[in-house]
Amino acid sequence: MTQHRINTGDHPPIKQYPRCLPLARKEEADNLVKEMVDNGIIEEYSGPWASPIVLVKKKDGSTGFCVDYRKLNEITKKDSYPLQRIDEVNGLRHWIWRNADECEKSFNSLKQALTSSPILTYPRTDKDIILDTDASNEGIGAVLSQNNGNEERVIAYFSKSLGKPERNYCVTRKELLAIVKSIEHFYHYLYGWKFLLRTDHASLRWLLNFKEPEGQIARWIQRLQEYAFEIQHRTGTSHGNADALSRSPCQESCKHCMNAEKKFVMEIDISVKVLTTTTVDPWSSCEIQKAQLEDPTIKPILEKKLNSADRPSWQEIAPESPAIKRYWALWDSLHLKDGVLYHR
Question: Helix, strand, coil shares of the chain as percentages rounded to 5?
């Protein structure tokens, strides 16, 4: 047992009367006191000082035994501490950020690992699609995945910072915003297919049964009616994948990135044969290369990449379609691996 002295100076002892306790809880309080005495946590005392007890219900349904020491704390003299040492003031015992080549290399390797096999996989029409969404005060995040045997494999990630007006939304509205934005972002994967939507916000299960919605909620529900999905609640401790993405906002150029990506999606009929990932079974590199060569948009870019690493001149691309011109603009972000064209 740890003992310490409470310095109250020359203030007379404070003896407070006990608070009213329901008779139904008297036995519960006596058992808690007996348990703490038996475990050596407290000991019997007879003196002029007394503070009332308070029984508080915990989240797990058990009872917490508390003592109201506010009157005692008001007269307790605060402890004095010495001045900080010079090495503490200089932060010598704190973390210092250093940007070295090894750190940069490790950071890039981590990003590559999170967007390559075996993390990412290709979407399969014969597998169930799962969409996990989450929202925080800073942003929204989502993870699109599929069941592959006994494990879930990620198809793609999504995250977006919230604007100033959106940060003023209530928690439920933010979570609903995360669902709407995530489903619209993964339109090419979700439209026309039934999928499972998982969220850690239990109240969103009433989404499809909401009576007489108005304003923004009504517009969002109307947009979601184009999709077939089932909402499932998942506890926050099991929802870490989407939660992490919602809490890592992009502080710079996030609106520009989203606008550019939205424009790209509107202008181009994106082929699902091209993903930011590497090869995984059951498709081989030869099969993917063959599929890309059969794609009228990807084929010209792939052939030029195979022949030369230099970007073709504008005169060569000018007669081509807008979709091919868009890939030409992304030339430096495209790279070859085993004869397959990837977007970095």
Answer: 40, 20, 40
